């Protein structure tokens, strides 16, 4: 790192600390909402599929189409479309909490599909064995299916966190703040490539830490 780059970093340290805090708010809030709402939606998508414990084929197809549509919706456009809703919920359309509204919605549909896929990987014999022992549908879902899929679910949460981190960078385009916004404002708009390089390095480090932690926890949870 040359003297000029080091000087820029020292000068912008308060901005870096602020940006890291904003990113943590966006990722933390959005991930929590997505895990709860998206997890429930993913479980329902699996359980309501034909041949499953709460089979509702028609409704399942409709909701599945909605999930696929929302997953394909461009995130930046989604943020703009949801601005009135964001203002109604948090009172403003700018800042990390405002960005968390759109991030939470997008992440919930994304995580729902991941959860559905994880549950689909559970051997059918496990479900049949639970049914043969007289287990109730809710018991099968939460004590059998979720338990069997826990290693995959941990990896899915890891993927979710990394995806939200990436989308939070895009949130900076319309005033969401965060590390990505710092890179855009200083690295791109003010032609400071050293700041952009530092932002990329920081985001890469965060991704590596999240992925390593997720891999470790998944391996610990895997019964095989």
From TrEMBL:
InterPro entries from the xrefs?
Answer: AA_ABC_Transporter_Permease (IPR051322), MetI-like (IPR000515), MetI-like_sf (IPR035906)
Alphabetically ordered keywords of this record? Cell membrane, Membrane, Transmembrane, Transmembrane helix, Transport
Record's superkingdom? Bacteria
Q: Which GO terms describe its cellular component?
A: plasma membrane
CDD domains referenced in this protein's UniProt entry, alphabetically: TM_PBP2 (cd06261)
- Does the entry feature the keyword RNA-binding, yes or no? no
ABC transmembrane type-1 domain segment(s): 20-218
Q: Which SUPFAM superfamilies match?
A: MetI-like
Q: Where is it mostly found?
A: membrane
In the bilayer, the protein is annotated as: Multi-pass membrane protein
Q: Which GO terms describe its biological process?
A: D-methionine transmembrane transport
List residues traversing the bilayer.
20-47, 59-82, 88-112, 153-175, 195-217
Annotated localization: Cell membrane
Q: Name one Pfam family in it.
A: BPD_transp_1
Query: Record's family?
Result: Belongs to the binding-protein-dependent transport system permease family.
User: What is this protein called in UniProt?
Assistant: D-methionine transport system permease protein metI
Q: Which organism is it from?
A: Kingella potus
